[in-house]
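Incident log entry.

Two folding requests arrived from the same account within the same minute. Monitoring flagged them as a possible duplicate submission, but the sequences differ. Recording both here for audit purposes.

Request one:
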Amino acid sequence: MRFDIITLFPNFFSSPLNSGLLGKALAKQIAEVNLVNPRDFTTDKHRRVDDQTYGGGVGMLIKPEPIFAAVESLPILPRRDVIVMTPQGQNLNQQLLGELATAYEQLVVICGNYEGFDERVLHLATREVSLGDFVLTCGEIPALALINGVVRLLPGTVGKVESLKTESFEAGLLDYPQYTRPAEFRGWKVPEILLSGNHAEIAQWRRQQQIQRTRQRRPDLYQKWLRDSKG
């Protein structure tokens, strides 16, 4: 998997891309991340990538020229998706991460800044993606979340593939509660069922906990799960 990140702040990614499972996956070449700075494609001596908005308004917009030039400088692999990170995009969820991890071999991710992009930048995109209904200072934060979420689904990143199948959202439900030693901590005890050694009953308990937790904490997901379960 190749990621091409169009970013005004490539240093933002330095530590995260070298840390944890993500850093190990990149070191093993399970994926590669190529950082491209639009400033390198400007033509004026000040390397300006932003300008005032037509019609007035507060803040500056990212100009289309350097973004187009940066994207057009990239190789085009057969299965490529060009993603603009923007609050107005579709919400990033586990289903979308799974699609990106399996259906594509190249993800071009364009990070926004300031008051956003000139609208014409969206002509480059095959989709727009958002972390949710809120605004951040830059598109690098959601871009990093997307990279992390996709890479961990690629074969070889996570040691135990089974763990990916039972975690939150994979089956439309939240994850079940999990415990480790000690069996009692500050008066809170591990549920007896988990100490029983009866794997069938443990699996049933965990399923019940997933349903109960989803119904209580995410009724929207619970209702969707009910609809999907009924086919």
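Request two (distinct sequence, not a duplicate):
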Amino acid sequence: MRMVDVGDKPKTERIAIATGLVRMSAQARNAIRSNSVSKGNVIEAARLAGIMATKRTPDLIPLCHPIAISAVEMHVATVKAGVEIRATVKTVDRTGVEMEALTAVSAAALTVYDMLKSTDRGMVIEAVQLEAKQGGRSGEWKRKRT
């Protein structure tokens, strides 16, 4: 194993967007909407967890470069199936922020699960995926809708 050498790459603006879903019961979803979860505001806790996790990605993922994060935008919302999570991460650096965006979504989803596990232990974290990325040598990539 080795860390990829990015020293010769130019610093450029890079953006990555990742999404995920926490599927849950109507009872758990209603607890979020009525803000009646004993641990507190699930949406805000998940947003904060995603932002914090973004900055800790190289501590969690082996061989992931520490990079200067310019911005993190977390969107966490209830939907019919449960809670949708979307992270947009930006940097001006030598390597992309795909792992940071995916880590943000994962940590936010785990936070939702943790805060609601007393209500619904059957929740499922699913569809954590990269939606798009911009910048760097490989340019722009977008997930194709099927």
